[in-house]
Amino acid sequence: MQEDIAAPPSGRRRGWRRFLGGAATAVVVAAVFLFILPRIADYRDVWDVLRDVGWEEGLLLLGATALNLITFAPPWIVALPGLRFRPAFMLSQASTALSMVAPAGAAVGMAGSYGLLRSWGFGAGAVALAVALTGVWNQLANLAFPVVGLVLLSTTDQDHPALKTAALVGLGVLAVLLTAFVLALSSAHRARLIGDASSRLLSRVKTWLRRPPVTWNGDSLARFRVSALGLLRRRWHVLTLATLVGHLTVFLLLLACLRVVGVTDSEISWIQAFAAWSLVRILGALPITPGGVGIVEVGLSGALVALGAPNADAVAATLLYRALTVLPTLGLGMLAAATWRRHRPRDGLESPTC
Questions:
Q1: How far is CA 74 from the centre of its chain?
Q2: CA–CA–CA angle 221, 224, 230 (5° rounding)
Q3: Cα(294)–Cα(284) distance, integer angstroms
Q4: Quick one: average pLDDT of 229-234?
Q5: Can you give the pLDDT at residue 15?
Q6: DSSP label at 33?
Q7: Where is mean pLDDT largest: 24-38, 168-182, 258-272, 287-301?
């Protein structure tokens, strides 16, 4: 009886938290687009830059966008034997769209991927392994890019304090994650120790956030280790290559946006563009707004201006880049969510179904 009485306030508190979170997101986005970006460049000047983009440049952008979209699927094909390109493409668009619109970001996208793959008949173990490995490889790539960007930028005798900070943080987190990952794979005993310690730590953090504890432990990680070793021994290099290609086509799209709005190589070289892009990959991963809306725009525009791009050109390239990386995926993701049953693989599944 007491539990029944206590339940409604808990529900109201969750509702208030969601409302306040949404309000905070709206405030951040409004502040960026109404006050911060106009201080970097007047929107009329930005529109003048975008209006000068011709049809030849439009074709270049169309090709770069298409290349970016089709490279979403290969990591899933590698990580989940039996998954073909068409369903993998629709899965990747749906899960990425979910991660863009949900406050929890990547976690919601991973949960959506798991649900879709299970509904298509793939086994729970194979799906969990694919979701985990693609997620881990994506995060490792995001953490490694600022380090590479800083190294490349140092060859041009330039310094960028924000990039240096992001690179150092990324290097530290990357070292911890890689060490833990390698130790967990090295033996079942270490996997149990790391799994138990991680689950206790995450459960404590979730308790502070008034969320339920995690449901996995060291035994879960030990079972994951067995499946992961079997797949990684055969495909780790292909998964790494597919993940890197998928990320780097996003950078190529940014570079195309810079060039079509008139930012020359003498103003922003590809190394400088890569450095700015790698910094924004870290900013976009922070769970401040869904899909990093507002945060990415001001971060990328500011980085490009600091590296030498004209203000209006930097904002124009940023807005164009964001439109081409977000809007097509949102559209395709909604289409995939509405037609997901039609994309079920029909030619047999190689992955276990139990």
A1: 16
A2: 145
A3: 9
A4: 86
A5: 62
A6: I
A7: 258-272
Interatomic CA distance for residues 168 and 175, integer angstroms = 11
DSSP 73: S
Q: Which two tokens stand for residue 127?
A: 């799906």
Q: Is residue 353 part of a domain?
A: no
| Residue 185 pLDDT | 77
Q: Is 350 a domain residue? A: no
DSSP-derived letter for residue 34 is I
Look up the domain containing 334 and give its range: 2-343
Residue 154's Cβ-count burial label (10 Å; 0-12, 13-18, 19+) is middle
Structural domain total, the chain: 1
Instruction: Identify the H or E element spanning 271.
Output: helix 270-285
Find out whether 89 and 7 touch, Cβ atoms under 8 Å: no
Torsion of CA 110, 116, 120, 123, to 10 degrees: 30
Q: Helix, strand or coil for residue 145? A: helix
pTM for this one? 0.84
Tell me the CA distances in angstroms from 154 to 148, 169, 203, 272, one per residue in order.
10, 17, 41, 10
